[in-house]
Write a structure and sequence with these properties.
The chain is an alpha/beta fold. Helix 2 (41-54) packs parallel to helix 5 and helix 3 (71-89) runs parallel beside helix 4 (143-155). Helix content is 34%, strand content 28%. It has a 4-stranded mixed beta sheet with strand order 1-2-4-3, with helices on one face. It has one domain (3-187): Imidazole glycerol phosphate dehydratase, domain 1 (Ribosomal Protein S5, domain 2). The protein has helices at 3-6, 41-54, 71-89, 143-155, 169-187, and strands at 10-16, 20-27, 34-37, 57-64, 98-105, 108-115, 121-125, 158-165.
Length: 202
């Protein structure tokens, strides 16, 4: 293995409960290649957006008790993606750490502000019209808040997502995922070798 390959920030993980079985692989230094399957087509699409616009390779394999509700699958996927991402980033030495961006999708605009702080916090000010997004099965957009809360908690990330404007639920949710992904892409970018914290740890 070359030095460049050994330095790549990648990790894999599995999570198994009575409700879900999930496997995740993340390569922070990938090229946005994704392969996500959760039994929820719209959620798969959002995970694809997270990997593609985050500039990282992301593989997700999840099965869960969808006959009851999608909540367990979405939340547990967030938990595992966050923990695997944290493992891949390691001590975060050299990262930019902070990033913010506004991303549009047609009439929708969402702002993401992100800090690889080591302190989990989510401010989620996304209030789409509320109808389920059509698919088989339909997807409840409120579940994305649970996904992000689970991800930031297990990854140790501070994330603020704020809807600037928007009317179409699909556009609002997709813009929020793209905004978070682009902010994450900027925040994990390596700028040197120093740890960007006066505490000496993130």
């Amino acid at each position: 293995m070359s030095t460049a390959e050994s330095a790549r920030r990648r990790a894999v993980g599995e999570r198994s409960t009575k409700e879900t079985q999930i496997a995740v692989e993340v390569d922070v230094d990938g090229n946005g290649t994704t392969d996500c399957s959760t039994g929820l087509p719209f959620f798969d699409h959002m995970l694809d957006q997270l990997g593609r616009h985050g500039g990282m390779d992301l593989t997700v394999r999840a099965t869960g008790d969808l006959e009851i509700d999608a909540h367990h699958t979405v939340e547990d996927t967030g938990i595992l993606v966050g923990s695997v991402l944290a493992e891949a980033l390691g001590d975060k030495r050299g990262v930019r750490r902070f990033a913010s961006i506004r991303v549009p999708l047609d009439e929708a605009v969402v702002e993401a502000v992100l800090d690889l702080s080591g302190r989990p916090y989510l401010h989620y000010e996304i209030d789409p019209p509320g109808q389920k997004i059509l698919g088989d099965p339909p997807f409840d957009p409120q579940l994305m808040e649970e996904f992000w809360r689970a991800l930031v908690t297990s990854a140790g990330i501070t994330l603020h997502l704020t809807l600037v404007r928007g009317r179409n639920t699909h556009h609002v949710i997709e813009a929020s995922v793209k905004a978070a992904a682009r902010a994450l892409r900027d925040a994990v970018r390596l700028e040197g070798t120093e740890l960007p914290s006066t505490k000496g740890t993130l």
